[in-house]
UniProtKB/TrEMBL annotation:
Name listed for the protein in its UniProt record: Carboxymuconolactone decarboxylase family protein
Entry-linked PANTHER family: ALKYL HYDROPEROXIDE REDUCTASE AHPD, BLR3452 PROTEIN
InterPro entries: AhpD-like (IPR029032), CMD-like (IPR003779)
Pfam families in UniProt: CMD (PF02627)
Record domain Carboxymuconolactone decarboxylase-like: where: 19-102
Organism: Caldovatus aquaticus
Amino acid sequence: MQNPPPLPAAAARVAQDYPELYRAYAALGAACAASGPIEAKTQRLVKLALAIGAGSEGGVHSHCRRALEEGVAPEAMRQVALLAIPTLGFPRAVAALTWIEDVIGKPRHSPLTTT
C-alpha cells in the first residue's frame, strides 16, 4: 500500500488525536479497495462519482487531487461529472464540474457567449 496523501488540517487533527480510530479507518479503506477486481484508476473515478452524488465539495477536491497523482486524465474526471446529469440533475453536475476545475484547472471548453 502506498503512503496516503497529507490530510486536510481538520482531518489531520482528528487522526493525531485519535490515531487508533484513524488507523482502523485507513485499514477499512484499504480492505474495501482490495475486495474486488476493479483497478485503481477506476476505483478513483467511482469514489469521485460518490463524492459528487453526496454533494461533497471537499470529497470531490480530494478525489480529483488523488486521481491526478494516480494518472487519471482530467477529461475522465469531467466525464464523471457529466454522467451525473441524468441521475443527479444539471445543477449538481455543474457544481461538480466547478469543483473539479478548482483542482485540475481551467475548463477545456470556453463558456458559450451570446451576441
